[in-house]
């Protein structure tokens, strides 16, 4: 049998580019993000959705806090634009003007800031702080590495496949090796290869039986055919990204950036059985054995980039809530003192009015006695007591009651 010159890989240099390419280790954690790429049709669509959600949620939170800050600024500047009904008391005085001098001091302005913040439920403030901080952190620190970086384990497995002589089954003829100068070389094939399968191995696996290597190990290429095995539809995913023609699932697919799978597939083992035949029926391997190890690095990243910011936000809100509670206690004491002061004033006024009323009543009695003594038949109220006094004498208690109720 004449010798034929073939392309042979006998050594190689294996290196990972860490300058322009990023890598991730937790394949299990990043796998759902790659599925999102597939379900949305392309990595670009998935990136658009994630960044759209990130910007949308953050923009809502920024808008909320912009409105809150604008409200605080307007309130502290006392400009009166968009003034709320609760900014004025029953007498029409501004509630922020605590001493009633018509001007806001620094202390009153600070109290006004706390008064505006106290208006909001702390839970809502917490939610909006989280909406402001978490989406960019999650997207840039958790989603983006899985989107843009390469799976270290899957890439290493893939490149070892190239060492062993396997090409990409799904992007022929892109991996067709031709001389750079176009000159004819003995090692360059005149035409690109085919995606192919081994008829006996794939047929046995499809039937659910173990292939018998003694039937083909001495001349494995004899049963190699172009295309995909008839009936292998379960291994053929038509929804894969950038599908050109039907191929079976394989580790050697050209999409290493979007490939989170770290196992060999039947297609890969079939190719290895053709290139490196094993005639031992017991040791020959035709079905993949895949051990997935959960590294849980993704969970640690979530803890670092999600849990810690959340705890810091909660701490901020609790601190803010404590300040508001202190302010509320001070407000309650201030209102109580103001109420007691007004109550005292009204009671003093009422006592004064009652004294006046008693005085007029005494005058009335004195006048009636005089008229009776004069034999007058007139029994009406002493004319010198004005009607307004009678009405006024009853008004303080009503006035006090109205204020007390208020
Ligand atoms: Zn490759």
Structural commentary:
This protein has helices at residues 27-39, 43-77, 106-118, 122-148, 152-163, 199-207, 266-275, 297-373, 387-405; strands at 23-24, 150-151, 196-198, 224-226. The radius of gyration is 44 Å and the shape is rod-shaped. It has a domain at 166-172 and 192-295. The chain contains nine helices and four strands, in the order βααααβαβαβααα. The chain is an all-alpha fold. 53% of the residues lie in helices and 2% in strands. Helix 4 runs antiparallel to helix 8 (297-373). The longest helix has 77 residues, at 297-373. Bound molecules: zinc ion (ZN). Residues 158, 162, 168, 254 line the site of zinc ion.
Bound molecules: zinc ion
The low-confidence parts are 379-406
Structural class: mainly alpha
Rg measurement, Å: 44 Å
Q: What is the helix tally?
A: 9
Mean pLDDT: 80
Instruction: Characterize the largest beta sheet: strand count, sense, and whether it forms a barrel.
Output: 2 strands, parallel
Element string (H = helix, E = strand)? EHHHHEHEHEHHH
Number of strands: 4
Instruction: Tell the overall outline.
Output: rod-shaped
* Spatial sequence of strands, sheet with the most strands: 1-2
């Amino acid at each position: 049998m004449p010798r034929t010159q073939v392309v042979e890989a006998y050594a190689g240099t294996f290196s990972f580019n860490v300058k322009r390419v990023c890598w991730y280790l937790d394949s299990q954690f990043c796998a759902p993000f790659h599925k999102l790429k597939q379900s949305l049709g392309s990595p670009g669509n998935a990136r658009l959705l994630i960044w759209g959600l990130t910007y949308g949620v953050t923009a809502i939170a920024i808008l909320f806090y912009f409105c809150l800050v604008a409200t605080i600024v307007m309130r502290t500047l006392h400009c009166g634009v968009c003034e709320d009904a609760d900014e004025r008391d029953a007498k029409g005085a501004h509630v922020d003007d605590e001493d009633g001098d018509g001007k806001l001091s620094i202390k009153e302005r600070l109290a006004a800031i706390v008064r505006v913040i106290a208006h909001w439920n702390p839970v809502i403030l917490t939610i909006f702080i989280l909406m402001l901080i978490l989406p960019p952190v999650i997207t840039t620190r958790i989603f983006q590495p899985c989107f843009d970086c390469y799976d270290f384990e899957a890439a290493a497995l893939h490149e070892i496949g190239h060492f062993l002589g396997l090409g990409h089954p799904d992007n022929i003829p892109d991996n067709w090796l031709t001389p750079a100068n176009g000159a004819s070389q003995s090692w360059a094939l005149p035409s690109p290869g085919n995606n192919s399968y081994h008829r006996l191995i794939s047929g046995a696996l499809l039937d659910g039986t173990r292939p018998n290597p003694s039937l083909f190990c001495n001349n494995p290429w004899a049963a190699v055919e172009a295309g995909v095995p008839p009936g292998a539809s379960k291994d053929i995913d038509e929804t894969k990204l950038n599908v050109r023609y039907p191929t079976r699932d394989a580790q050697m697919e050209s999409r290493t950036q979007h490939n989170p799978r770290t196992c060999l597939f039947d297609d890969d083992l079939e190719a290895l059985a053709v290139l490196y035949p094993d005639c031992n029926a017991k040791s020959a391997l035709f079905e993949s054995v895949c051990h997935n190890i959960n590294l849980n690095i993704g969970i640690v990243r979530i803890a670092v980039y999600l849990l810690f910011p959340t705890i810091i936000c909660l701490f901020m809100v609790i601190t803010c809530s404590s300040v508001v509670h202190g302010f509320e206690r001070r407000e309650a004491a201030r209102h109580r003192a103001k109420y007691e002061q007004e109550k005292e004033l009204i009671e003093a006024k009422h006592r004064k009015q009652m004294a006046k009323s008693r005085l007029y009543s005494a005058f009335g009695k004195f006048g009636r006695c005089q008229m009776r003594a004069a034999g007058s038949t007139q029994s009406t109220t002493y004319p010198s007591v004005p009607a307004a006094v009678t009405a006024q004498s009853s008004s303080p208690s009503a006035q006090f009651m109205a204020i007390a109720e208020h």
